Amino acid sequence: MNAILLLVFRRVLVSVVILLIVSALLFCILRLLPVDPAAMSMPPTATIAEIEAKRREMGLHLPLPQQYAIWLGHALRGDLGTSIHFRRSVVQLVMSSLPATVELALLAMVIASVLGVGGGLLLFHMRGRRVCEQILDLASITLLSIPEFLWALFLILVFGVWLEALPFTGRLSSEFQRPVVSGFLLLDTLLVGRPDMFWDCVRHMLLPSLALGVAFSPTIMRVLRSSLLDVYQEDYIHQARLRGQSEWRILLRHGLKNAILPTLSLMGVQFGFLFGGTLLVEVIFSYPGLGSLTVDAVRNADLPIIQAVGLAYCVVVLVINTAVDACYLVLNPRVRVA
Amino acid sequence: MTIEMDRRTALRALTLVAGSAAWAGNVIDAFAADDAVTIGWPSDVPSWDPNQRFTPDAQPIFKLVFDQPLDQDPKLKLIPKLLTKWELAPDGMSLAVELRDDVSFHNGDKMTAEDFRYTFFERIKAGHKVDTANSWRKVKDIEVQSPTKARMIFSSPAPTAPQWLAFLGSYIVPKKYFESVGVQTAAQKPIGTGPYRLVDYQLNSRIVLERNDAYWGPKPKIKRVTFEIIKDPSARVAAVQSGQIDFTINVPVREVARLDKEPGLAAELNPMTRIILIQCRNDLGFADDNVRLAAHHAIDKTALSKAFYGGAAVPLSVVATPGTAAYLPDFKFAYDPKLAVALLAKSGFSPSKPVAIKFATTNGQFPSDFDIARAIQQMWKKVGIDAEIETIEYAKYFELNRGSKLPEATLYSWDNATGDPEIFAGYLLNPKLPFSAWKGQEVGDRMAPLFNIADYDKRIAGWRDLNRFVIEKGATIPLLQSVQTVVRKKRLSYVKYANGWILADKMSWA
């Protein structure tokens, strides 16, 4: 337990440094873009003098390090500025969109894990059966080579348009009034005691999370199979067989437990990519998360939102990586001892 | 009793349950549809403060929750709304208005002339960050004579004040409510006088409105209106095709014919008061009148319309759309590549010795924008104009223009729901405004007096003359009247407005 707490503490410290570096980089890159935030925040009919006054009000006439220091001071007080397009607090906008993306990414991760681990075990199980192994191998490579946005279009076409079985826009059907408790809709529907609404929400999330999860699962499959093949060369597997343990028991108790560790590490690293992949998928499914907000922000050159969304992505990835490392520590006693 | 179920039986049962659930869902949808409508809309409202941002796509949504002092009929004629009478002074320096006395906001507060004054004067003077501060900057005061009578006083003539009372951002907001809860809260929990009230809103996702049964005007037939914000055009197509939404706009033009053949769906292309044009500079490679006029003569607008809008977009020769006051039906600017070559030759250019210019375009701001630019580039190349295309973000247009960084030609689109010529040529070609890339003073000098003419007929005659002058001068190149694509369930009828408004309070199920 102490080892886990120590790891979390260390990770928090490192995360603060990483966040500072990322925020400084983002700030500089966005300021180097040929976009004038002062002009963008004024109506088209604003005069040059009015824009200049706005520029001073926003502190844009100051040297870049000074601008960053001012921004950081505000950020530490929880103020990430005002959106140019929405003219609302950026923190408010990001916090209203973040839960939707986190929910989507987590469900996608669950789907990817189930498909990945299941597929990995199947691939491993079929080892040595030449035709089956080759077919499964080909299938996993095919899955791997199709990007998430193509999965999204394919799933919409099949389950949305042809079968008309699942909704593919928004988070909830129009007959439901969205409960607002934590912002996490799945959780909120349960908190207000509405299983029907919970199920409706899950149905809305199925296709976008499948699109993300399916695209991500082949990597897990292939790494798990390869790890299992390595693990099965170890002496303790042979010894377990000599002790007369069943193949299932060997697989679950010795094989999978050891082979899952590299897979877990990979999932932690890949979660960042999966979270980034939500951007396009959210737009395709009209899913109101950070992705939709980012697309709007880019279209309107809304720099404060772009900066805040960049930081939000960074925070989520750091949190997930810390959580994965903690899991790794729990599952792998060798690391705890080290 | 025990039931034994093998795998096959279980799968069959599961299929049956799933099938029944889907069928039941469809039956429920069919019944639920008669007093509800779900609209797939391409963009969200920027804020629920309707005075705050001028966003044309948000107006049909605002018009359901808020009311404007004046309204427009489907042919764009001004008609009463919250105002029963309005009269512009002969010098254009004031506008006397009379308001209805039977209008209440959604919270029950009565709407009075004090709310009118607050909306168009007090909140602007208080420094609220609203775009109406620009459209109503001429307002020096609003005298409230009684709860239903007021007089707007302007610092300079405002002949288009009545048009602006039915245009972008001009929605009356409740003074008492705004002052008691503050602007931020009022923008989060909006209260208007409109036919619907907001019951649920999720940023970038969904807007749910319910009929305001205490509405002062005609009661809408649809009780519940849901706007699903679907930004991707292909997703809107899929949603309407699968029946998840009942109505949508701005789908790709090429999809219209196909969707119209789908059973239960109707799809159409409606011309609207949005124009596609090329904004020209009066310097650099376009300093020479011959080059600009040649550039205009070289463009086959009919071919562009056929290629990109199925022939539904009307080719334009002036900066106005057919049916609006200053449109010139008898004035045609010819497509004549030979004349273009001759004009360029006068200035020493030819296809083998072309004039080099830059041509800016957006990519995805309006249907086929980038492809139109590429087609024009090819048309120009044939006559001796070598245009290098550069892509710009629409949001940066004004910033680039202010800094004189726009190139010689910029493909642009302009929306003017009022149809008034002042808001067409008076904005697009006014050298003093950031909308105009043209900074030549000859146009500005001719235009300036028109802003001060209060007499409607005289004013329109002036703008008609100007519309012809700017084309003959080569100050702009109007291309096409834009079209709005509409796809709907056949049973759902709506009213076609010449400015493209889609108003749910005018919809009904057959």
Q: What attributes characterize this protein structure?
A:
heterodimer; A: 338 residues; mainly alpha; 14 helices; B: 510 residues; alpha+beta; ten-stranded mixed beta sheet; four-stranded antiparallel beta sheet; 17 helices
Q: How would you portray this structure in words?
A:
The complex is a heterodimer of chains A (338) and B (510). With 338 residues, chain A is mostly helical. Chain A is built from 14 helices and no strands. Chain A has helices spanning 2-32, 37-40, 48-57, 64-76, 90-125, 130-145, 148-162, 185-191, 195-231, 235-242, 247-284, 290-299, 303-331, 333-337. Chain A starts with a helix and ends with a helix. By secondary structure, chain B is an alpha+beta fold. Chain B contains 17 helices and 18 strands. In chain B, the strands form four sheets. In chain B, strands 8-9-10-1-11-16-12-15-13-14 form a ten-stranded mixed β-sheet, with helices on both faces. In chain B, strands 4-5-7-6 form a four-stranded antiparallel β-sheet, with helices on one face. A two-stranded antiparallel ribbon of chain B has the order 2-3. In chain B, α10 runs antiparallel to α12 and α15 runs parallel beside α17. In chain B, 51% of the residues are buried. Residues 1-32 of chain B have low confidence and may be disordered. The chains are: A mainly alpha (338), B alpha+beta (510). Chains A and B meet through α5, α7 and α12 of A and α1, β1, β8, β10 and α8 of B.
